[in-house]
Amino acid sequence: AECTTTGTQELKLWTLSQFRERPVSSLPFLVSCTEQIGDESPELDELRVTSSDNVVVAVGDVMLSRQVGEIIRIKGDPKAPFLKTAEILEEADITFCNLESPFYDEEPPIEGEMVFGAAPETIEGLKYAGFDVVSLANNHVGDQGVAGMNFTLSHLDKNEIEFTGAGESEVKAREPKIIERNGVKFAFLGYNDTQSAIRKGYAATSEKPGVAVLTKENLTQDIKRAKRKAHVVIVSIHWGVEYEQSPTERQKMFAHLAIDSGASLVLGHHPHVVQPVEEYKDGYVFYSLG
User: In this entry, which stretches build a coiled coil (predicted)?
Assistant: First the structure.
C-alpha cells in the first residue's frame, strides 16, 4: 500500500516477507521523502529534505525477564532472544519496540507473579538486535519501583537507546523523541492506556517519574508540537484487550484522532497478538504488533 501524508512524505508499507522474502512477525514500513516539506511552521524551515529512503522496523512487546530472563541466564548470553531476528532488525534505519520490562540495579529485584524486572546486562541484547528507540509507556515499567524506573531511564540513555512515553516528570514523558535519518526527522510519542498502570501509580506527574497517559488533550497537543519539529510523527500506544484479535472501539477512536491530528503512523501493543492494520486517510494504524 502507498499513501502521501500531510507532511508530503510518501509512505510505502510492506510485510517483512515482502521486504526480505521470508516470513517474520514484524511489520516494517519505508518512508520516502519525495517533495519539500510545506511551510506549516517556521521551525520546519531548516527541515527541508531531498529524496531519500528510510526503513523503519517496528515490533510489539519485548520482555527480558521471567522465562526469557532465565534463558538468558542459563545460556549466559544476552543476545540469545534475538539470534534469529537480529539480522533483519539491525538492517533498518530505525528499529522500534515496546520494552515491557524495566531494568533493576538493586539485588534482590522486586518479585511477584506478574512483576517484571530485567537484569542490567540484558540491554546488550537490545543493542545487538539494533533497537534504536523503545516505548516505555506500558503497565510494567514501574514494576521495580521509582528507583528501578529511574535506573531504566538512565541505563537506556547510557547505552544510547532512545526512549519515549516515560520520563522523570509528566513533561518529560510527553516530549517527542526526535530521530534523524538521511535528512528526515521522525518524532516518536508514546502513551499508556491500560488501567492497571494507573492503578499501580505508574503515571508520571510533575513530581515523580512515570508514563505518559493517553487522553484526547495529551494526544492532540503533543502531536501538534511534534509536527513543528519533525517530518514524520509516529505514535505508540499501549492499549486494548490482551489476547483479543480485534481492536476495541476505544482503540479505533484514539487511532483515528492521532492520524487526524497529524500522525503518520500509530503503533499499538499490549494485546500480545497481532491485530489488523488499517489504512486511515493519510496514515496507517497497526492496532497490535504482538
Answer: none
